[in-house]
Amino acid sequence: MTQETGALFIGTAGWGIPRSIAERFPGEGQHLERYARVFSCAEINTSFYRSHKRQTYTRWAGHTPAGFRFSVKLPRTITHDARLHSPEVLLKKFLDEASGLGERLQVLLVQLPPSLSFEARVARTFFETLSSMHGASVVCEPRHASWFQPVADQLLAEWKIGRVAADPARHSSAGVPGGWMGPAGDGAGATLYYRWHGSPRIYYSAYTDTWLHTRAIELDSWPKESECWCIFDNTALGAAASNALSFTNQIFGHWHAQRAVFEEGN
Question: Residue 1: pLDDT band by 50, 70, 90 thresholds?
Answer without folding.
Answer: very low
